[in-house]
Amino acid sequence: xxxxxxxxxxxxxxxxxxxxxxxxxxxxxxxxxxxxxxxxxxxxxxxxxxxxxxxxxxxxxxxxxxxxxxxxxxxxxxxxxxxxxxxxxxxxxxxxxxxxxxxxxxxxxxxxxxxxxxxxxxxxxxxxxxxxxxxxxxxxxxxxxxxxxxxxxxxxxxxxxxxxxxxxxxxxxxxxxxxxxxxxxxxxxxxxxxxxxxxxxxxxxxxxxxxxxxxxxxxxxxxxxxxxxxxxxxxxxxxxxxxxxxxxxxxxxxxxxxxxxxxxxxxxxxxxxxxxxxxxxxxxxxxxxxxxxxxxxxxxx
Length: 301
Hints:
Elements: E1 3-5, H1 10-17, E2 22-24, H2 25-30, E3 36-41, H3 47-58, E4 65-70, H4 82-88, E5 89-90, H5 92-95, E6 100-105, H6 121-134, E7 135-141, H7 143-153, E8 157-172, E9 186-197, H8 199-203, E10 208-214, E11 218-224, E12 229-232, H9 242-252, H10 277-293
Parallel strand pairs: 1-2, 3-4, 3-6, 4-5, 6-7, 7-12
Antiparallel strand pairs: 8-9, 8-10, 10-11, 11-12
């Protein structure tokens, strides 16, 4: 949240020069406050786990946040009880007439499929098009980021020779962008994917800014110039043991070339070490504050 500072206090100019967000008295006095409306399109198979992960990160905000959980009508989830879906989820037809302050599109374990072969691709395209006019800012995660980059900018995904799997160090390229304010110059993000984005096509996209990269995991954080579209190739929302669960699942399935997640376990042991929680929380707080709350009109109409 911004610091409310008197207009003529000397500290105001110093903090602004350091890219600390401050709000002067006149703006604070006139600013209306209401709950922020966030719609979460949950495409992950373990929906309850993903709900908990995302709400944990967004729940640290002092803002009041109202959530709507969304699933495609053209796909029937197999790993979540129908009762849970009926009670807590809605479909796009029920909300398409509404406006939301923010939207999150999660990942999905369907990287092996061309986008056009995904059962709900046409519906997802309709939702992403709708978001351009009915959502202030949309955060795309992992496969959701690849799908968003493909739909909005024509950037394709590419097959990797080996799965990117582990917790990787990232470098902040644009330190003064609002989304990475407060970040250390190096920070960690979990990744778990068999595909990457086409970096040559990304370089040609003049409407996008790359905010952070990893030598091992590639581009991580991308923001559109108008800040309405944010793309995150990793999984900072993951719990400490999520990669371990995926690793054990792959071993149980007897998949070929299964490797332990890199930079994940404590040295000499088998216990995971969480090195990404603080930056994950900061990332979601920055998005919710700077890209949603500060940009959304009090009355959409």
